[in-house]
Amino acid sequence: MSDEIRIELDESSGPVSPKFQYNLHVEISADGSAKIRHKTQKGVVEVTHALDAAKLSALGAELDKRVPKAVDLIGEMRKRVGISFNYLSITRGAATARVDYLLSHAEDGAHADLTAAIEAVKAIVTEAEASRGPSKAL
């Protein structure tokens, strides 16, 4: 398995009241650079963050264990309107493991590995936003 890894998470609230809308997009490159764009009712926050080699390797190992292959949990629901379609993608070399999911899949308890994988990526977001200091929307 190639050591080159690329991780991408895209998650949004979908069509809900503006008070509760959010969008989170995270891209982590093989060099450990993370680009984070987080949009809430307070505005848009864009953060870049560097993961050291050990942290990137540990995150990659955790995600490889939790998301071993491509899975589409959305299926026929793609035809529906008013649903947020989300994904977590892990690419190593030419191989990609991608999970397409609804927010309910990450919260229902039946997909514990997916939830743990998403939370592992979101922990990087929390770390990046904390190291940045007080949040200021763009």
Describe the secondary-structure layout:
Layout: E1 5-12, E2 23-28, E3 33-40, E4 43-50, H1 53-66, E5 71-72, E6 86-92, E7 95-101, H2 103-107, H3 112-132
Parallel strand pairs: 5-7
Antiparallel strand pairs: 1-2, 1-6, 2-3, 3-4, 6-7
Helix pairs in contact: 1-3
Mean pLDDT: 88
Instruction: Flag low-confidence runs.
Output: none
Largest sheet, strands/sense/barrel: 7 strands, mixed
Counting helices, strands and paired strands, the structural category is alpha+beta
Order of strands side by side in the largest beta sheet?
4-3-2-1-6-7-5
Helix content: 25-40%
Portion in beta strands: 25-35%
Order of helices and strands: EEEEHEEEHH
Shape: globular
Number of separate helices: 3
Main attributes of the structure:
138 residues; alpha+beta; 7-stranded mixed β-sheet
What does this structure look like?
- Helix content is 29%, strand content 33%.
- By secondary structure, the chain is α+β, with helices and mostly antiparallel strands.
- The chain has a seven-stranded mixed sheet with strand order 4-3-2-1-6-7-5.
- Helix 1 (53-66) packs antiparallel against helix 3 (112-132).
- The mean pLDDT is 88.
Give a short overview.
With about 140 residues, this protein is α+β, with helices and mostly antiparallel strands. It has helices at about 55-65, 105, 110-130, and strands spanning about 5-10, 25-30, 35-40, 45-50, 70, 85-90, 95-100.
